[in-house]
Amino acid sequence: MALLAFTATSASAYDGTSISVSGRVPTVCQVSIAGSSARPIQAGTNDLGVMNELCNNLAGYTVTLNHPAGLVNSWVEVGSQRIAISPNDTQTVIVDNRAPAYRTEPLRLVLSQAPESATNFSLNAEAKGTIF
User: Fold this and answer.
1) Pairing of strands 101-111, 44-55
2) 94: region left, alpha or beta (phi > 0 left; psi from -120 to 50 alpha)
3) Phi-psi region of 87 (alpha: psi -120 to 50; beta: other; left: phi over 0)
4) With a threshold of 0.70, does the pTM exceed it?
5) Closest Cα partner for 2 from 29, 16, 21, 30?
6) pLDDT in tens, 16-58
7) Where are the alpha helices (DSSP H) in the chain?
């Protein structure tokens, strides 16, 4: 829902009318993956599909990959950027944007060894600034 305020001033001091428009929209911050079929994660390069990011927050946003601990010598590729995964952590920030954006990038997960059991990976987008 948008709130619009219109202000008109008298034309007595000058030859025109001034109109001011302002609005506020809800914060939208989301991430999704398209174009990938469900396959088991294995050692080597895993093409996960195309990551779609959308966030309208003026302060920007982060995208976090949630993963199991213990992934040694592994990384994520977002487009041409390579982000190392810490073997001690269960979350890795893969996008840290300082402005609103809509982006699409190929997403790949590169593992030095196959996970020992069924493993869940997920993405989370979070706005940095005030949320409306």
Assistant:
1) antiparallel
2) alpha
3) alpha
4) yes
5) 21
6) 788 888 888 899 999 999 986 677 888 999 999 999 999 999 9
7) none
